[in-house]
Fold:
Amino acid sequence: MSSNLQIRKTCIFCGCGFIAKTTVTQYCSHHCAQRAYKQRKRELKIEKVIPTATVVSGRPTILSHRDYLSCEEVADLMGISRTTVYRYCVTGKMKCIRMNRKIFIRRSDVNQLFDNAGPYEVIPVDQKPITEFYSMKEITEKYGVSESTVYNTVNAKRIPKVLSRGKTIYSRKHIDKHFLLKAPDPQIFVWYSVEEIRQKYDMSTSAVHSFTSEYAIPRKKAADVPTTPPSMSTPCSNSANPIRRSASGTA
Structure:
């Protein structure tokens, strides 16, 4: 049932006049109603924070009238942890006295740390220049990985790289350090394929991948699997990602 009322009101949010059709309408538009709702929510959040801020801001005021402070109070005053203050006391960087199990520090000694402080100096780090690099082709051929794997590894591990003659080359030391950890033992000759594991142990493909990932079982691409010596069993099929057989015959 539509209303025939026409009441002139003033929007409580924007202050503009409008014609309301009900006696409880407070806003001139849906837009003003939404903005007023967000403002109320924002004010409620601020009201919850104000009591906490008052307590935190009031403590330094109390500390400002005290000449002798504990480790906790010095930590609050300087904005550091209590452990750091205690370490400064033990190493002699900050003067203190110990009475029974309590440590007291004079405020004047804390201020003196800044009065007698020398200029800030940056300690240079002696880094040897990188002189040996790999090209992308050398990395993919040596470690049998794709270019996308190399790109992702370089970005994730922040491996140093430079531009030489229009091509990007990568630090040999950092590349070897990362990929050698993942390279399987060259003494491994017998491997399972994913399909062989699925058939032998009645596992799904996702279960096989989860199992090998959880227990860090070595794996290789089928093209990189070495030929099995005559004394060992038949090598696996040509399925991708063959996985090492253990001595007990389980994956």
